[in-house]
Amino acid sequence: MGENPFARKRAVLLAYKEQRVRGRKYAHVGLKLRRLMDPGSVTELWQDLETQDPLQFPGYREKLEDNQQRTGARDALMCVKGTIDSNPVVCCELSASFLMGSMGSVVGEKIARAAEEADQDKCPLIIISASGGARMQEGMYALFQMEKTAASIRRFQRHGGLFISILTDPTMGGVSASFASLGDLILAEPDALIGFAGPRVIAQTIHQKLPKGFQKAQFQLEHGFADRIAEPEKMREEVLQLLRFHVKGEKTLLRKDLPDDECIQQAPDLPDMVKNHGQGEGHRGQLSAYERVRLVRSEDRPKITDYIDALFTDFTELCGDRCGTEDPAILCGLAFFGSQPVTVIGHRKGKNLRDSLRFNFGMPGPGGYRKALRLMREAEKFGRPVITFIDTPGAYPGKEAEENGISSAIAENLAAMAELRVPILSIVTGEGSSGGALGIGAGDRILMLENAVYSVLSPEGFASILWKDSKRAAEASEIMQMTAPELLDHGLIDGIIEEPEGGIQKEPGFCYRRMKEAIETFLSDLYGADADELTERRYQKYRSFEGALRPVCKAAGGPVLKPEESFNATLQKQESDI
Amino acid sequence: MFRRILIANRGEIAMRLIRCMKEMGIESVLAYSSEDADSLPVQMATDAVCIGPAPASESYLNQAALVEAAKAASCDAVHPGYGFLSENADFAALVHENGMVFIGPDPEAIRLMGDKEKARELMKRNGIPTVPGSDGLVDTAEEAVRVADSLGYPVLVKASAGGGGRGMRRAASRDEVIAAYQDARAEAQAAFGDSSVYLEKEIVHPHHIEFQILADRYGSIVQLGERDCSMQRRRQKMIEEAPANFLTPKLRAKMAKAAIAAAKASGYVSAGTVEFVVDQGGNFFFIEMNTRIQVEHCVTEMETGIDLVREQIRIADGMKLSIRQSDIHPSGHTIEVRINAEDPQQDFAPSPGNISFVHFPCGGGVRIESAVYSGSRVSPFYDSMIAKLIVHASGRQEAIHKMRAALEELTIEGVRTNIDYLYLMMFQRDYLLGQFDTSFIEENTEKILRWEKACRKKAGLTG
Predict the structure, then answer these.
(1) Which of A335, A365, A428, B413, CA to CA, is 20 to 30 A from B426?
(2) Stated pTM of the model
(3) CATH of the structural domain B132-201, one choice from 4.10.520.10, 3.40.50.300, 3.30.70.141, 3.30.1490.20
(4) Nearest neighbour of A11 by CB, restricted to B408, B424, B460
């Protein structure tokens, strides 16, 4: 033979090498997971589980072995037990490097086992997904894994478990349409393709033209299907932060001393005002109702983000109603008040025209209320108090809002808040108008800033309904009895937080301190209270009929509350103690 | 010291013996079959004598011809190598009767250890753990069932005269015992002319660990550490290494002690190997003792720096061991692979033929034992092993990397070999992690073969 005697050897070795390089390139099963976990804490579970190739699908076994050999894993999912900053977790990674991360029996089985394991250990479950969907080679066996994983995840969640789902590029088909979308919290990596039907399938089947950025992580966030977008490098911090709001260590003790921030230090020593304010004549700085309306609508009045910055730490925004909308007019998130985790919900308004437009002038649509409801439920599940900030001219009165069921969304919130098994504090900071305000405002305790207004409708709306002339808003304001003192007089709110002369913006630090005190009082009164009693009191609070008669009577079957036990009475007592 | 030694063997072990004898200043006389007339050892030995035609029964197993050749060449000793007549007590006795030295243990020791059942009895008496089994031979099928029931399943029915898996049957449950018993008896009768069998409990997925020992005529016995021979296919060893990383120092010391006790109990002299199986729980059991120099003896030589063949010849010549136990310090890690002329894709069928081209790897820590050269012939009459490749490095991972490099270099054209199969084995995750037992090769072979086939196809090679 004329060729070099090493030629054949060389050709084969090159082929082996190519195969190995290909393997290394894709050998990433478990890589993201390792970045998340504490080094050395990881114990892999069920790593030997292998599919039996139930359909004896032609070529499947070869493909599996090829992937096994390339990745060093038995199937696409790695499941481990370990810790993240010493918090025990069960964590899985579904990796696109193994048969495109498709879900067959092994992946489904391991997800179900992981959920059961986390349930048994009472620790959070984290699943990082990257998948093309169900595994075609396993047919209906693969399809049914969707139900199996969804069922086991939901059972784990019903038992109080926290499931954080992390979506990476790509998360599609049967995986995105099962466990991956069921996270109590859903994080997505930037630019990850996330969806059900792939863009090519859509383009080829129904020939729909798809917008730029379609199905990317940002698209999913804007449509309410992800809580947050986080860079892969920051994922560990991100997850850790979320865990801190959820992990139940020793019962968190509420900090009795308030944080010393500068603005509070600088606040002038003004007389205490959080008490039976405005009962009759004699309180200072009498502003007319309409002056108050204009004051609270001014752009330089603090907005929700200012209150959050002043009152809380580590605020972490959570987005999306999971029904197709992320409404920026309502801001939701988790934060610490001192060392106590709380859920914060409120209307968001802009400080300039551009922001105001972006936040739709603080007028939420149905998605906003549904998002608030979702996060109130999340707070309820994890026993976290809810604090809402109200500042809205009303729910958005547009066409889309009606089409998407604004009435239904608000009604659902009212009903749900009545039964929420954690304490709710509502603070009206600006204008509270109509159902748009009450939709997140039906708390155990309602407080108002001194100049805030709260009414059945905006004065403009009131005037247009009663007098067919919205220009008579000022006149309407005066007769609507919408100011804080008036409402306290009626017993419709529970307290007033005084503002300095000229409004909160003149001396915000003073107000913030009063707000902190009010929140602290609220928490020490109600956090940890028996949930049945709490919801019964709330029921009775709204069950009342005009101030003089309340509280009315027990609800059928509910515990009988003596008047002195009623929430209002408790508050009155608290206040006289100050 | 011996002046001339007859080598009653062929191939790589003949070359190994010739080299050693040259170093020691001893002349070698190679006994060869007409089939091997062109082989390398014939050229390299001091002298060579044709002792018969190709079939081993008429040449390498022909005791009378061998003894005559040795006498005619004025040899004072005969080295049998491994295989062929190396563990044949009659041949050892015949050599002695003709006034020459058989390089190996005494015929009695060979005979004792050749009778697996008697050997087991001896070890049991001397407190060395053996695999639970029948008390002595099992003479009836009914007794076999009774014993099997008491041992618990699975059980093995083994020919007393057997070895290398022949005359052995497995019974996974009670229903299979009678058939296994009858088959084993029939095969033992056909293969060894002795149908006696005994029963043993099967240790499932054990590690196969053997200890190398050297014993002289003056009561000195040393052990040179273990070899892990768990990488077997159908009981044929494929890859051997030392040390066995899964042994704890405590377990290793306990087994070494048992190995020396075993040699002592049988009054053993010469180089030998005590074989154990170790179960998943770290319990070890004596299975047999090999009374020859073994194929994988080079692994221990690389670990300890001691020339086992040289020691074996010295012992046979009535000299004392040149080393004490305290001189033996195994170091680093050694891996040996057996290069066979066979086609892994055809169920490892032998692939005899002409070797058109051969290139052996070189470099520090790389050792080749072989008798093939470009233009040599691989005979269909004999064992298909054509070379051993041994690498030694500071640690196991380093040794595996060296083995990969050596296998990339090793090129043999003209016959199919298992070189690529072994090469791909060096990339198996569990092997790299040291997680393997005697079931490993069986469980991983199919996968490797598929990989090999796909890549060969990609490289434009068929078959």
Answers:
(1) B413
(2) 0.59
(3) 3.30.1490.20
(4) B460
